[in-house]
Amino acid sequence: MTTAVAVTTGVRITPAEALVRPSTRPGADYQCNLAMSLAKPLGRPPREVAAAIVAALDADDLVETAEVAGPGFVNFVLRSDWLAARVAAMTGDERLGVAATAAPRRFALDYSSPNVAKEMHVGHLRSSIIGDTLLRLLRFAGHEVVPHNHLGDWGTPFGMLIEHLVDEGWTNGHSARGAEHSIGDLNAFYQQARKKFDADPAFADRSRLRVVALQGGDEPTLALWRQLVAESTRHFQQVYALLGVSLTPEDTYGESFYNPYLAATIDELEQRGSTETSDGAVCVFPPGFTNRDGDRLPLILRKRDGGYGYHVTDLATVRYWTGERGMTDLLYVVGTPQAQHFQMVFGASRAAGYLDEDHTTVHIGFGTILGEDGRTIRTREGGSVKLVDLLTEAVQHAAKVVADRSELDSATQAEIARAVGIGAVKYADLSGNREKDYVFTWDRMLATDGNTSVYLQYANARIHSILRKAGQAADAGGGAPIVLDHPAERALALRLAQFPAAIEAAVEGYAPHKLCQYLFETASAFTGFYENCPILATSTTEPVRRSRLVLARLCSQVLTRGLDLLGIEAPERM
Ligand code: ARG
Known about the structure:
The protein has about 575 residues and is an alpha/beta fold. Helices cover about 50% and strands about 10% of the residues.
């Protein structure tokens, strides 16, 4: 394509500009809009440029027809024998045609990152889900990925929390109330401590001293702090297990982890002469960031009271993952409200020499989850929604969706309800452009029709049922020649062949919704195939029957793999 254009027009273009996209028009497989954008620089009508591209095209083994359409598109139809061969090659390949990258990179992936001594809420849901998918996608693409969970486990709130624990009779890591305390207590603890801190100046003073003791490494203080972290970690692991997110305590690189690096980080920046003192605080001012009044915005390295905070910790984080761990790409899956923070951290890190030209840093932002009233999701009482409650409710709703369709035993049904419920929450989150807010609606996310995980799961389960009924023939189908005579067979084959492109698009844009959209289109193509192309009916004779079984099985493999990359299970029976 690129060559054809270069030959025809003499204009140098990149492969990206020559992009040929899947077509949404009936009768066309792919479409290219390049002629439209080349018309102007060439001073020729777009249809004429399109015709020249078609005339110069040299892809007879691949393209059946190439035609100028509309104001100057080129529509392509692929050769069915090429498509059949492509699909046949996928059937024996456990990577389903997806090549591992020729240029593997080393990603440090920051996601989930909840705060200690606070229960995880829906705000952390998105980071956990999106991060987990990116981990899977990047690894599948052949990259190295090190996940790290930037726990909020350090800083001023811990002074008041620990002081409150002491008041409540906790000492040296033991609770006066024995082992029965739980994260629920700690959550309430946080609020009580906060209240006391705001109301009682003496308590506030003690809390501040406690922070100094914590940061100074006072052992009894650290013991209490470790207790808080351990308790919270237990809770986070429960949520991750429920959610099917693979983060473990070994992946924790909390704010406290970077504490030993902070002094050196600040020293280096001071030696470079890039720091300034402002209001008694040591700061850097990354270029290009100002508030509405035009004042430059600081990243605070050391507060007036000598304490360190969120800003400098993130600088030390960049320094650590590039300098000590040799990572090439730093990804941060954190809500969009922190966009400016990350841009400032990246700017300052470049200036500080923590990043060179080969490093990339990406803030993978995401929008808010809204309730049906269009505002940030809340409980009926107006509190923030707890993640555990939400996920439990999801499984209960899913049990209703699957129960009345199933002749399966109750344990299997419970398994299916879990896969469907958790899958629905994840898929609802991943299937929209992550930058956008979305409305959390049980009915929509659990609909058995439309772009939902349940729809994909049912399509896959239906294929498994066909394969079970076909028995031996399903295995015998492997290696059978692919017949694409019916338009619905061909449409399914076309979608299946697009799996590698869908993976590439999702990886490239850190955009899981592109994979979701692809899977939905594939499942829809299967529905059309299933309705129009009988597989097991006696009227279907060989070799068509075997070919259809191969297509169906490949479709199941693609759906299962795609869902797995989204962290969603694909039950074989539903
Ligand atoms: N704990 C933070 C929060 O809940 C998110 C941390 C994100 N990662 C980072 N490196 N700053 O808002």
